[in-house]
Amino acid sequence: MSTPTPPARTIAVIRERGGEHTRRAAASAVTVGDGAFGRYGTAIEHFTGIVTREVLCDPVRDSAGLVGQLLALCERSPEIAVLVLAHCAPERAPAMRMIADVPVVPVSDVVAVGLAAATVTALNRSGRAPAHSRVVIAGASAMPALCPLLIGVGVGDITSWNLEDATTCSLMSIAAHADVVINLLARAPGLSSVCAAHSDPVVLTPEPLDPLSVLPGLTRALVEMPATDHTVYRDRYDEVLLACVFALVMAAPPGRPRPPGPSGALAARIADAATRALHPTPPTIPRP
């Protein structure tokens, strides 16, 4: 009797029914993938050749509700190898690394990868070493993955600022002497005044960044990872994202702030970097 062929491994792109972005607080909203739900699945499948499904889940009040729905989905569809969360509230992302041994990729974390890479590129273009640079994150609570990535790329001075900090310290005062300000706020009080008064800082926002510069390659690496190694992704999550940051920096053409856009070549570069981060080669000890 022949053994049944297991179904091909697939990627599932998840979105809450009704669109979580319509319910975000306007003052601290991060524009991540609005209106691009179909585009994620289409592009991932195009650049990886891996069947990609798009799944709507019901709106939930907390992480536990979303985890429950994703667990049920993975039980019904064991062929799913990777879950991509098209919209994920910042406070939920850390709880979403693994669902039933299936790796999870929040798109907001992928945007953080793009912002960290853009920061390194901006500093390099201005001749500033990251270790001697100051970066301010305005609205830092909207993207918890960003600060660890900036630490990972070697930024020496990082200040996280949120709207509730305005009563004790204005954004204008802390941004005035920054090399880069990463603006995650829909409205950044005083930031335009700082930019008008100083040649610095460079201001970066999520809007120009395309998550599809990273998603195809990262998901491909995770699909190709042996199922027995899935806990490696959870344990090395920060290292994997950091490897994608450096791959993006290296892929940017001279004089350009970022790679020109999603491509098969960029997906291959990101996949290679993520795979090496998942399975780092142990150092060779020379024989005496």
TrEMBL record:
This is Uncharacterized protein. It comes from Pseudonocardia eucalypti.
